[in-house]
Design brief:
By secondary structure, the protein is α+β, with helices and mostly antiparallel strands. 19% of the residues lie in helices and 20% in strands. It contains 12 helices and 29 strands. Helix 9 runs parallel beside helix 11.
Length: 610
């Protein structure tokens, strides 16, 4: 704990934070994001400063012995900064947390750890609330309250419901039916829980990974970033009930069905082995399987007895050998046209907007989920009107759901690269793909407060040890890029919701958001509600964060004010505890307080410093 002298001031922060933007740089750090600041920017430690700079007197600068060593600007000079010589300017004087050196340099200035770290001028004019934007100082003898409209806070005093906007980028290519169905059943309760836990106005929209087809209102929907307004009423024949195993005959499928599906009383007449002509093509170089066993049917009742009331016998052609059991999406009660943006007041509609019609048209050559999110959210782009339906003063949550990887490109690709486009590399590596960094920067700029949470639900290795994971991915890449002597479709993992390739670019994007990013393995669960529960934790942690005006000091107190009752919180576990994090890039100090207790609308967090 450091101690600092502050004459009779008490700092109150409504839960949330004053989100000044800091420059961001990333390195090979296993997905962590480091937010670093340039010369004379405010800092808490040297880790906050760009390479070559140190945190001296809460400013990013360099040590010196004479003025001649300070080459950063004409006014830079070598001055004592809390007992150490450093390059500063007359306007930006560093200070020590132990002694106030500011008053001697500028009468009336105080040592500040806020957005104007170092010595800062106190407020001389108040705005009626006792607080003025752009500083953590207060009017003398008054209490400073940061209001949501000014500070971008997420839990506010009064009745206003701050927004949480959720965009789902849903893959609508083949093999996604089970994922979509599970996600659709889980997403409505997810919205309700978020609204109940935060008091927020939660809104949700969805778009597809298709950015090439035109939304024709008949066969293609939610393309080029358009919010979806048409719920899928059935899935394509590619979603018929099947399981993946090595097979050459229908008899082999019948024999394997008991272990794979629990259907042990079947005959070969009930199964169809879908296998390439050559046995050498049944498996891929990395061991993933190309052959499947599909369940045949003759009636809806037969399928319902096996797969539940939503199942039916689908007849894509006139030949019974082409028929199979399929399961309908949970959208039978959806209106023909769904609102493009649904709220937590109507959670039953959430299933409608995330159930997208599969697009197998020739214009849908490869999936481009990252570009779709940019087209959907760009407030100056082709979908400007819908983008503005999302508010900018709350939290933005973006969820990418895909059994493939992103292939967002500049221009078009030759047809022979469609299946391996995600392996081609980005433009800064000589490939055709848009660098993921562009989408990281775009999403980060969508909320001035820095409040963006990103989740990738995509294919990842099922291995657990780092070396095994690396080997698994390397084998996948080699297999997926190997010469196609016969048709094969390499996958990285398979789970209850289907098989998936490596969602490397989606994962890279999510990991760049540090504690506000979440990567889950699409192959790791049979129920999408487990994925959304993890996302819920991320969102609630973000929403509950209160930016600290300084790092913890002697006498530092945290109080919850709820319904007029004050409750002192202590650092640590338990309902009346809180945690400190220094991974809060939206906070000027980089530090935030996270209460363990779920907060109600109107609750406040009071940070007290004597």
């Amino acid at each position: 704990m450091r101690s600092t002298i502050f004459g009779g001031l008490r700092w109150l922060l409504v839960l949330g934070g004053l989100g000044a933007c800091l420059s961001k740089s990333t390195g090979d750090t296993g997905g962590e994001t480091h937010w670093q600041k340039g010369w004379l920017a405010g800092c808490v430690s040297s880790a906050d400063c760009e390479a070559g700079l140190s945190c001296l007197g809460h400013l990013c600068t360099t040590t010196c012995e004479s003025d001649s060593e300070c080459e950063q600007g004409e006014s830079a000079a070598c001055q004592d900064v809390g007992g150490e010589n450093a390059c500063v300017t007359p306007e930006r004087i560093g200070c020590s947390s132990a002694t106030l050196t500011c008053d001697s340099a500028h009468a009336g200035w105080t040592c500040n750890y806020g957005p104007a770290s170092g010595c800062a001028q106190p407020i001389s004019v108040c705005d009626g609330t006792g607080w003025q934007a752009g500083t953590f100082d207060t009017c003398r003898d008054r209490v400073a309250t940061l209001h949501a409209s000014d500070a971008g806070a997420t839990i506010v005093i009064g009745d206003r419901r701050p927004p949480i906007d959720v965009l789902v980028v849903m893959d609508n290519t083949g093999g996604m039916a089970d994922v979509q169905r599970s996600f659709a059943k889980a997403v409505g309760p997810f919205l309700t829980r978020l609204a109940d836990a935060t008091g927020a106005d939660v809104r949700l929209a969805a778009t597809s990974v298709d950015v090439q087809c035109e939304d024709d209102g008949g066969t293609q929907f939610a393309t080029r970033g358009r919010f979806n307004s048409v719920a899928a009423q059935q899935y394509a024949p590619t979603a018929m009930r099947a399981f993946r195993t090595v097979c050459s005959t229908d008899e082999e499928c019948a024999a394997a069905a008991c272990d794979a599906t629990g259907q042990c009383d079947t005959s070969a007449d009930n199964w169809d082995c879908r296998s390439p002509p050559s046995e050498s093509c049944q498996t891929n170089p990395n061991g993933s399987i190309n052959t499947t066993c599909r369940r045949l049917c003759t009636s809806d009742d037969e399928c319902r007895a096996l797969y539940g009331d939503e199942a039916y016998c689908q007849h894509p052609g006139g030949q019974p050998e082409d028929w199979g059991c399929n399961v309908a999406p949970p959208t039978q009660a959806c209106p023909s046209i769904v609102p493009e943006v649904v709220s937590d007041d109507e959670p039953e509609l959430a299933a409608c907007v995330v159930s997208l019609v599969e697009n197998s048209s020739t214009c849908m050559k490869f999936a481009q989920g990252l570009e779709a999110s940019r087209l959907a959210l760009d407030r100056q782009g082709r979908n400007e009107a819908q983008a503005k339906a999302f508010q900018r003063d709350g939290l933005l949550v973006v969820i990418y759901v895909s059994n493939g990887d992103d292939c967002s490109t500049q221009g078009t690709l030759p047809e022979e690269q469609y299946a391996t486009c995600a392996l081609q590399g980005s433009t800064d590596e000589g490939g055709p793909l848009v660098p993921v960094r562009e989408y990281i920067d775009f999403l980060g700029a969508q909320r001035p407060s820095g409040r963006v949470v990103v989740m990738s639900i995509s294919g990842q290795s099922l291995e657990t040890e780092p070396e095994a994971i690396d080997a698994d991915i390397a084998a996948y890449v080699a297999s997926a890029g190997s010469p196609k002597t016969c048709y094969h479709s390499t996958t990285l993992c398979e789970g209850p919701l289907g098989a998936a390739t490596h969602g490397a670019r989606y994962a890279e994007l999510a990991l760049a958001f540090g504690s506000d990013g979440e990567v889950v393995n699409l192959c790791g669960s049979a129920d999408a509600s487990e994925f959304l529960a993890r996302l819920e934790t991320r969102v609630l942690t973000n929403v509950r964060r209160a930016c600290a005006p300084r790092l913890p000091l002697n006498g530092f107190t945290v109080t919850l004010v709820s319904a007029g009752v004050e409750r002192v919180l202590v650092e640590g576990p338990g309902e009346d505890g809180y945690a400190m994090t220094v991974d809060a890039p939206e906070c000027n100090t980089g530090a935030a307080i996270i209460p363990n207790r779920t907060l109600a609308p109107g609750d406040r967090i009071v940070i007290g410093v004597p």
